[in-house]
Amino acid sequence: MRYCPQCGHAVNMTTPPGDNRVRAVCPSCDFIDYDNPRVITGTIPLYKGKLLLCRRNIEPRLGFWTLPAGFMENQETTSEGALRETLEESGSVAICKQAFSMISIPHINQIHLFYIAELERDDFHATEESSEVALFDLKDIPWDELAFSSVTKTLTLFIEDHKNGTYGFHEDTIHLNNAYDLNQ
């Protein structure tokens, strides 16, 4: 940010009093821009034991498979956002069952939260955001064609929990040196 969204004055990059981070601060009106992480929320949609994946029809990672997920909007809960994204990306109506994974990706200022969800029926289709939508047996997940490391991590944890027959809540971090989320 170069100019204050309140008054239009050029901002200074400085640490405000009582803070511990450099922020854009307006010397004219004292506005402080708190640039905080974005929340991405989505589902692990299941139908009769199969997993629904969407092939991305948009950048980043055009053509790769992913779980339906996207940026949470203002004035919605994380589960509402996850269900909205599932509908937008797959045309499917789902029901959230439980929060499953929360993955921090600090180098891109994002937090990814995935819910286990059940599809009400096998009604899904390609959308503007997904060129293809398909159900996969868990043994047939296209691991080499997954779009994001947060999706790979979430599905790996899901498969482990599925084998154990219980599903917990998992928190993890993906660092730049082991991620392909650079443009997420």
From TrEMBL:
This is NUDIX hydrolase. Keywords: Hydrolase. CDD domains: NUDIX_Hydrolase (cd04511). Its cofactor is Mg(2+). It comes from Marinomonas algarum. Pfam families: NUDIX, Zn_ribbon_Nudix. GO terms for molecular function: hydrolase activity. It comes from the Bacteria. Residues 36-159 form the Nudix hydrolase domain.
